Amino acid sequence: MEPEDYFMAAAVLSAKQSKDPNRQVGACIVNQDKKVVGVGYNKMPNGCEDHMPWSRSKAREAADAAKASVMDTAAVAAIYAVKADTPPEDELNTKYLYVCHAELNAIMNKNSADLKGCSIYVTLFPCNECAKLIIQAGMKEVVFLSDELHDRVETKASRRMLQRAEITMTEFLPKETEVVLKLKSD
Ligand SMILES: Nc1nc(=O)n([C@H]2C[C@H](O)[C@@H](COP(=O)(O)O)O2)cc1CO
Ligand SMILES: [Zn+2]
């Protein structure tokens, strides 16, 4: 197995631990010696796991629906229209205010002194908040499997920052498209 396939497979496997019913994301950080130094998946903060909502916001659902039927500007307009209409208590009961993204958890789980010069393998392109963490940690490369949320405003802001910070964004093209794991031999 090629090392790159192994790193992305580690991110994919990590994602499987997420309890988010709508989306499971994984991240795997690799240093310049090609050693894994941190993995993570999207989860609620420690100790909060069983007490936080996994609901999506109406604004997010409206944006995704608009994106599906029209185009990005309609999706952004949908976010703001519904947000303006949403009482703060409703927003308080969505996952977005609480969930720790896969990239944040991989960074917090690091087993090295720092992450300078590292690459981060992610199953989904990072959002703007995670892009900030990646930049400030001194990483140099983002390798992503999916760019499904390419037109989300958060993804656009992320790309803008990563580009400015001269962090390479590489779409992952696997050598092997399937990795079969058997935990017990027959
Ligand atoms: N790169 C990412 N890493 C992540 O861990 N996430 C997480 C946060 C949420 O749990 C979920 C997004 O929820 P939804 O809006 O697609 O229902 O994925 C999302 C992104 C997208 O930028
Ligand atoms: Zn993020």
Question: Could you give a quick summary of the protein structure above?
Answer:
The chain is α/β, with parallel strands linked by helices and 186 residues long.
Textual characterization of the structure:
The protein has 186 residues and is α/β, with parallel strands linked by helices. It folds into 2 domains: 3-44 and 101-171, Cytidine Deaminase, domain 2 (3-Layer(aba) Sandwich); 58-93, no CATH class. It is 39% helix and 15% strand. It contains 7 helices and 5 strands; from the N terminus they run H-E-E-H-H-H-H-E-H-E-H-E. The protein has a 5-stranded mixed β-sheet. Helix 6 (128-136) links the parallel strand 3 (119-124) and strand 4 (141-146). Helix 2 packs antiparallel against helix 3. It is globular. The chain binds 2'-deoxy-5-(hydroxymethyl)cytidine 5'-(dihydrogen phosphate) (5HC) and zinc ion.
How many individual domains? Answer: 2
Describe the global form: globular
The share of residues in helices is 25-40%
* Strand order, largest beta sheet: 2-1-3-4-5
Q: Would you tell me which CATH topology of the largest domain applies?
A: Cytidine Deaminase, domain 2
Chain oligomer state: single chain
Bound molecules: 2'-deoxy-5-(hydroxymethyl)cytidine 5'-(dihydrogen phosphate), zinc ion
Largest sheet: 5 strands, mixed
Low-confidence stretches are none
CATH-assigned homologous superfamily of the largest domain: Cytidine Deaminase, domain 2
| Average pLDDT number | 92
Number of beta-strand segments: 5
Number of helices: 7
Structural class: alpha/beta
Write down the CATH class of the largest domain: Alpha Beta
